[in-house]
Design a protein that fits this description.
single chain; mainly alpha; elongated
Length: 182
């Protein structure tokens, strides 16, 4: 038995020769002919596929079992706080920027987003000594990473166009404060 007899034979009719020579047809007419030929071939392939797969048993699929969407669970829970007060404050400020939004040019913008210092101030709860210690550790962490040419936390915050770096620096400052036992 030859390999040719194992595959199903599909007779393809010879393409119809247009009455006019191809050169005499416009581009649109030639595209219409090709489109008609391709549509016929695709229709034939679809029928062949249906015939060849009709014997395969399938179960209906409920899309609710497959398609899932995120469940709105609210803001992310605050991770375990550092045991030291300054590190815990910096971690809360970091979390506040992650969940409440970051801004530049103001302590708090009209949408409630905060800058780095605004987040520290909000989380300090009026304790100006704790707020000052946290801001000092944050400035030290920033200077360790970006050099001594950084003047202040607000100038560093406002020099960025996105929250990525300021949020990362708050997290690094929390690690630094914890390492120092602050």
């Amino acid at each position: 038995m030859s390999h040719a007899s194992l595959s199903p034979a599909i007779d393809h009719p010879a393409p119809a020769t247009p009455a006019a020579p191809l050169a005499a047809l416009t581009l649109e007419e030639r595209l219409a002919i090709v489109n008609a030929e391709m549509t016929a071939r695709l229709d034939e392939a679809a029928v062949a596929y249906e015939v060849n797969t009709a014997h395969i048993p399938t179960e209906p699929v409920d899309l609710a079992d497959i398609v899932t969407v995120p469940v709105d669970t609210g803001p992310a829970p605050l991770p375990d706080l550092y045991p030291t007060p300054v590190a815990a404050l910096l971690q809360r400020a970091h979390h506040r920027l992650l969940t409440g939004g970051w801004c530049s040019g103001a302590l708090v913008d009209e949408d409630g987003a905060r800058c780095m210092l605004g987040a520290i101030r909000a989380e300090a709860g009026g304790d100006s000594g704790l707020e000052a210690d946290a801001a000092a550790v944050l400035l030290d962490a920033i200077r360790r990473r970006f050099g001594d040419n950084v003047d202040s936390v607000p100038s560093f915050n406002d020099a960025h166009g996105s929250a990525r770096v300021p949020i990362r620096m708050l997290d690094q400052a929390a690690h630094l404060a914890d390492a120092r036992g602050l």
